[in-house]
Structure formats: C-alpha cells, structure tokens
C-alpha cells in the first residue's frame, strides 16, 4: 500500500467514525497496548509510526503525548517514547488507586443503572467470554478493560471515567509485566454477577463483588521483589542454597 493510500484510508476511517486522525492513531496504539501487542519498554519510533499510519509525525507526536498523559507511554527528551514499564511500587499504587476508583464507579453505576447500558455491558461480557474460550487472551483483556470503562460511563461521572481509562490501560501493562502462572483474566462469572447486583439495585452486594473482583486481579500478579529481581544471586538463590 502506498503512503498516499495509507493517508487516505486513515482519513476515511476518521471521517466514518467521526474522529480526527489523531483519535484514530491514538485508538490503534491504545488497543495494541491493551492487547499486549506492545509490551513494556517497547520503543515507539515516531518515524516508523508515521510511515505505518501514513500521517505526519506531528499527528503521531500528539497521539503519543495523549498516551503519556494517561501514563501508559513514557516520553523522555532526546530518547523518544516507549511503552511504560511500571515498577513493583508503581504497580501497588496503581492497583490501590484502581480499587478505590472502581468502588466509587460501582456505587454510582448502581444509582444510575439503565437497561440500554446494561445490555451494552452484557454484550461485552459475552464477547469477552468468547475471546477467552478461543484462547485470544489479548482480546479478552481488552474487552475486560472496555467493560470497566463502559461501567464508568454508566456512573455518569466524567472525571472518574477519565481517571479509570488511564488506570485500566496501566493495569494491562501490569498484567503484561507481572502476570503470574495463574490466568490473569477475570473469572467469567465475576462481571455477570456484578451486573446482576447492579441491575437489582443491591449496592452493598455490588460493592462486595467489585472488591472481590479487584482482589482477584491483584492476586494474579506476581509482585514479589525477589521473583522479579535482576540480581543473579537473587534469581538463582535456590541454587546457592542447595550448594551451601
């Protein structure tokens, strides 16, 4: 495909979705991070992305800046942009912030529940379960994130929605970097059970289920300093002990 065709296609897609070219590029990169096709520390070369999307480097730069404001991309002077690589301490703070935010979202979503948005959420659960059944883990994680973002929309609180969107993408980075041996995807029943409680107007049960849900996500991440250390003596401590 020629560069002209790439530009034309990007413009047509932006027009069809009532988006700017900046939005289209941002969404593609954001989805690639959510689906873990761009793992932590991946260098995001402006020239390469400009050629791939067939747009100016100015548009690429604006999209990357937007992602950096959501803390999923790091931009450093003279070094360019890379996908963020949260430390263990970062991970602990991100998870705590998300737990608090999700509880606030759940409370408001229960108060503002409507059938149209509930159906959108149930459709996402169905798609997520299908992706997991097909072993499409990246897509499953992305759809799980979309579920939480859509739930925030039902809460009808714009600042919470904006903050949660950033936390969802950062959590995906944590899964990519610190996923343990267990399946990091949410239990297939957790989202459905949560929606049932919200639809019934049972705020206490909904909050309990969301708290359990967040603890499940945390439990599937290996945030043990020893297990992720770059110190060879720590990594191979079992060998050292066996020789003692």
From TrEMBL:
GO terms for molecular function: DNA binding; DNA-binding transcription factor activity. It holds the Pfam family FCD. The keyword DNA-binding applies. It comes from the Bacteria. Residues 19-86 form the HTH gntR-type domain. InterPro entries: GntR_C (IPR011711), TF_FadR/GntR_C (IPR008920), Tscrpt_reg_HTH_GntR (IPR000524), WH-like_DNA-bd_sf (IPR036388), WH_DNA-bd_sf (IPR036390). The keyword Transcription applies. Keywords: DNA-binding, Transcription, Transcription regulation. This is FCD domain-containing protein. It comes from Vibrio algicola. The lineage of its organism: Bacteria, Pseudomonadati, Pseudomonadota, Gammaproteobacteria, Vibrionales.
